[in-house]
Amino acid sequence: MRILDLLRMSLGSLLKRKFRTVLTVLGVMIGTASIVVMISLGLGINRAQMENIERFGGLTTIEVWEGRKTNTRTSGVSAVSVIGSASSSSSSSASRDNVMRLDDEVVETLKEIPYVENAYPLLRFDAIAKYGIYEGDLSLVGIPQEGLAQQHIEIGEGHLPESSDELEFFYGNEVALNFYNPKTYEYPYWSTGEAVVDPYKDTLFIIFDREAYINSQHDGKVLPPKKYIIKTAGVEKANEEGRWSTNGYQVFCNLDALVTTLKRIFRNKVIPGQPSTSGGKPYKKIYYSTINVNVDDVEHVMEVQEQIKALGYEASSNIEWIESTRQEMANTQAMLGGIGAVSLLVAAIGITNTMMMSIYERTKEIGVMKVLGCDMRNIQALFLIEAAYIGFLGGVAGLGLSYAISSVVNRVLAAGGESTVTSYIPLWLAGAALIFAVIIGMVAGFFPSRRAMKLSPLAAIRNE
Amino acid sequence: MAMADTRRPVIQVKDLYKVYRVGDTRVRALNGVDFEIYKGEFCSIVGTSGSGKSTLLNMLAGLEKPTKGEIVIAGEHIEKKNENQLVRFRREHIGFIFQSFNLMATMTALENVALPLTFQGVQKERRLKKAGELLDLVGLKKYKKHRPTQMSGGQQQRVGVARALVVNPEIIFADEPTGNLDSNTSEEVMRLMQKVVREQNQTLVMVTHDNHLASFADRIFHIMDGKIVQIEDNRAHRSGDNREMSDGGRI
Ligand SMILES: Nc1ncnc2c1ncn2[C@@H]1O[C@H](COP(=O)(O)OP(=O)(O)OP(=O)(O)O)[C@@H](O)[C@H]1O
Ligand SMILES: [Mg+2]
């Protein structure tokens, strides 16, 4: 028989029993929809979490900070040996006080680790900004130019700091919101909802020497430290409704420019946050707060992280978080998918049942077809196709239902404020669901179709 | 003039047995049957109820396996074929007319007649054209779009006859083709079959328990307790001929 004739005949016998067909299709529809909605929810949660992780610095970045040389040996001996080794070897980054500090050499060492694409240091420094009677804390982050590009910063106005000679600030979108009145401890933004300062337009006075400033505030005789005006390169884009930025509280600047400026301001003094020699003198070089290491692939993050830890530094990445998230997600999805699978199984049994009934009813018809010379394989195909039609129709209807449910779920979640967790049905899921429904139909129809194929042609002769 | 053609055997049956086991007893439905049927013949098999007529016909059509013996149709041994091969053999060489018509309820007369061609994989226009011609032949020109429920029994059986003819088979089998029809309609259908056999040079084997209907045939096989007891040549005085003597020209 021709394929087209097979398809036409199967459809014909399906449409002959409309009511029953509709009921069976309904079963498949519910089954398909439950699986698709479950998976789409899983995917939505998955996507939201991945977005979160992305915003927290991506999946392939390892953050390294200084480590403390710990020894399992008895403390007295270890202390002596460590001190000895530290003073004898200048290349070791472990300092006199047992801390594995981060300097340019460490950056180079980390770059040498396999799978590491690049590494760059960050220097954090806390400063104070004054605007009229208000002041605000600034968390300065000095980053080399190549690192700045990786910070997922959305520019609202201006541009990122570009110069490595002149210090420029780029303000996170929440810095301005945290200006307060130091006399009353009032935060105008919290009461009025309006920021008192716009760092892009207004001129801020920056105080780098916090200690001196605080002393001057408490003791009238101490002179306040010098204030500086730092050029504003740009400000971060304001947050969208319901979202927030991990960069919001930070003020970004070029690392070299920051270092040069700090060295100039704290000439011959120890820069706050930097270690000092035993004599209380500053070191010549600058030690960094953290080093960001970029790994080429998520798969290698764990390995590289272990190696960094073996060198004696602290290291963390989102990988542990991802692992546990993944596990959690797999569990949720397995459970949700299981519910869907059960309903599809019930639907499959429904198809089998329908097909069996239809075969019993059509015993004579099948017999006649065999007497008239319809190939056994064609007879099987007719019933398989019929079951596949049911699967297909159920799949299509189920997808329709899924999209409806999905949009309702999204609307409800959006109304509840959880805008990041959404159910979404990618095209591949729709396609896979449809193919799956058809396969389910054919699997469910397989046994009945064999049954039909094996029916005796004598049934056609008998006159009941 | 067509002597050589008419003497070519289409069916050869040799020493055919069919034994049914029911519990401990054995029923010899066919008990050693031998005969030959030639191209262009209209043969009827008559006998009392339970004499083994249907069993014989089913075996000839390859619907049941014989216990013993040989059946050769168009040079092929039926008894050696498996079910798949039998289906294919029927598709290509055999037409079948049923007692209860067995038309597909959802299909029109035209589609029903075309059905065996559909099984052969003939494309739609061609098979509908052929089916249309056959419906014209059986006198149902105006009923092509009718469904079985919209036709009388006699009309339905005409459709059945057309359906059996559509594949241009080697041989046509009919088991009590008029069993569900009244006597007038039965005669009409018998005449139609007669005409078809004659005009198309078809071979037809018909089972009936009615001696009158059997007498429409060229030869009558009398069967009793699974044995052919008499083969009667009926050509001289068969029913329905009186009207069509003039256009005969056959022996
Ligand atoms: N499947 C079967 N199992 C057992 N015995 C059977 C079977 N089919 C037929 N028989 C027996 O074989 C014998 C012949 O049956 P068959 O149907 O050929 O008779 P028939 O001549 O067609 O009769 P009728 O005119 O009533 O149709 C009967 O005795 C019947 O009981
Ligand atoms: Mg019978």
Structure write-up:
The complex is a heterodimer of chains A (464) and B (251). Chain A has 13 helices and 12 strands. With 464 residues, chain A is of the alpha+beta class. In chain A, the strands form 2 sheets. In chain A, strands 1, 4, 5, 6, 7, 8, 9, 10, 11 and 12 form a 10-stranded mixed sheet that branches. Chain A has a two-stranded antiparallel sheet with strand order 2-3. The radius of gyration of chain A is 35 Å and the shape is elongated. With 251 residues, chain B is α/β, with parallel strands linked by helices. Chain B has one domain: P-loop containing nucleotide triphosphate hydrolases (Rossmann fold, 3-Layer(aba) Sandwich), CATH 3.40.50. Chain B is 35% helix and 27% strand. In chain B, helix 4 (109-120) runs parallel beside helix 6 and helix 5 packs across helix 6. The longest helix of chain B is centred in the last third of the chain and has 18 residues, at 183-200. Chain B is globular, with a radius of gyration of 18 Å. The interface between A and B is medium-sized, with 25 and 33 residues. Magnesium ion binds next to helix 2 of chain B.
Write the layout of secondary structure elements.
The complex is a heterodimer of chains A (464) and B (251).
Chain A: H1 3-16, H2 18-55, E1 61-65, E2 67-68, H3 75-88, E3 99-100, H4 104-112, E4 116-131, E5 134-143, H5 145-148, E6 155-158, E7 168-171, H6 188-192, E8 205-207, H7 210-218, E9 231-236, E10 250-254, H8 255-265, E11 290-295, H9 298-310, E12 314-317, H10 319-361, H11 363-371, H12 376-415, H13 427-454
Parallel strand pairs in A: 5-10, 7-9
Antiparallel strand pairs in A: 1-11, 1-12, 2-3, 4-5, 4-8, 4-11, 6-9, 7-10
Helix pairs in contact in A: 1-12, 2-10, 2-12, 2-13, 10-13, 12-13
Chain B: H1 3-6, E1 9-22, E2 25-38, E3 42-46, H2 53-60, E4 68-73, E5 76-77, H3 83-93, E6 94-97, H4 109-120, H5 124-137, H6 153-165, E7 171-175, H7 183-200, E8 204-208, H8 211-214, E9 219-224, E10 227-233, H9 241-244
The complex binds adenosine-5'-triphosphate and magnesium ion.
